Amino acid sequence: MSDLFKKINYEFKNKNLFTEAMTHSSSTGGVSRSNERLEFLGDSVLSVIVSDFLFRALSDLPEGQLTKTRAGLVCEQSLYNFAKQIGLGEEIILGKGEENTGGRYRKSILSDAFEALLAAIYLDGGVEAAREFLLPFMPTDEELKNGSLIMSDYKTVLQEIIQKNPEEKITYSLVNETGAAHNREFTSQVLLNGQIIGTGKGPSKKQAEQMAAHEAIKLMGYE
Known about the structure:
The protein has helices spanning 3-8, 15-21, 36-57, 63-74, 76-85, 96-100, 107-125, 127-134, 141-145, 154-162, 205-219, and strands spanning 170-178, 185-192, 195-202. It has 223 residues and is mainly alpha-helical. It folds into two domains: 3-151, Orthogonal Bundle (Ribonuclease iii, N-terminal Endonuclease Domain, Chain A); 155-219, Double Stranded RNA Binding Domain (2-Layer Sandwich), CATH 3.30.160. A hairpin with a 6-residue loop joins β1 and β2. α3 (36-57) packs across α7, α3 crosses α8 and α10 (154-162) packs across α11. It is globular and about 50 Å long. The mean pLDDT is 88.
């Protein structure tokens, strides 16, 4: 059992799933599969398990507060912190360019790898195995009660503002992607009923969308 398997207290039956979860797109050269598909699945598994955890732990909290708390637990920063706790960066398979520019410790790469690892455990051992892996990262009762985990998730805040008018619809659009594979910059726009209300840039699509939502909130006078 590797050091990582000991830390997460899980041994894979299908080692190929673990390898795929740790394979960054920069290392594949289009020949083998990267962890992007697993990351997609892991995002949903993460949301379900965290939602269930908060629903049971915070039985008196209204929906809006539950949403904000969940946003704080599933955001890129939190996943990055979880990944660092188990030394996940040391296991990620990177291309030379990404390796040479510090990709092993890049927030977006670590957070995506954590989601991919969660999905791999889910596929290998089922939802209970995924839950047992994830729950040790969840906050204590005291942290939940004092509200310290409600972070600035601008997309959630913007959605709550817009929800006051049910006929309004928010969408996000990736409009540009520049830079080498190991140093990407993404540009996203947030649209209200098809009209641009904010633009943001970041090293990942998620961060670019957050920055676009942040700009929209400021332009609307909520900050």
